[in-house]
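WARN no homologs supplied; continuing
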Amino acid sequence: MFPLKDNIPTDRTAFVTIALIVINVIVYFVLQTKSGGIFSSPADAGVVDWGAIPYEFSHPGKDCAIAGQEILCEGMANAPAGEAPDQPPFWMTAFSSMFMHGSILHLAGNMLFLWIFGNNVEDSMGHVKFIAFYLLGGLVALGAQFVIDLDAAIPTIGASGAVAAVLGGYILLYPRARVVTLIFIIFFFTILELPALLILGFWFIQQLAFGFYGVANPTGGGGGVAYFAHIGGFAFGLLAIKLFASRSKDYTVPPKYPVY
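OK structure emitted
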């Protein structure tokens, strides 16, 4: 399912949501070093430098770097003698990692969800509080992912955790909102207008299922997706939205979009 738009109008321009999308796009296409052309995947070295690595947070002062085909960190049993090249402070990567992405599809998916649902959440609390809500959601999401393996030397990047916080806030503020959704069924597709509670609730159940399946079956692979960051961010949004939001509009406009 791919959401396309919702039916909740906003009373003010979502300047922060727009700015976040622009920053994410600029970081991906301009600031992230690519392994090839502009549309290729980011270079591994830049991801290791500016991505958030659990080991660096659980071992402050110990840096991680690429050595051949693997990431080694100071203090690890198999790390070479000497110090790793200087890296950005670990606390800084908690923020920089939120604006990095591993592919164009990764970027596009996150920005689509942020645009559809972020403008209404921003409208409910104002610009300044939305910045705090978004960044705090991203930090909580990182923490939720890190506790799964504090010694992991795998960088976490992406706006997914912060966007998940936005989704958690949205589902509580506008559960009966209608979302125009593109649905693929094997080789066929259709467009339906569905309740936000159904779409976002189904998305969250998916994250729970995939996340806990990955923990129970670590060799099964999670496809490199930080499911617990999604879970942590969404939970933060649910729990914190009432502290930030000062108003909401729960529209129940009848569906306007027929099935194709």
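The first helix runs from residue 15 to 31.
OK
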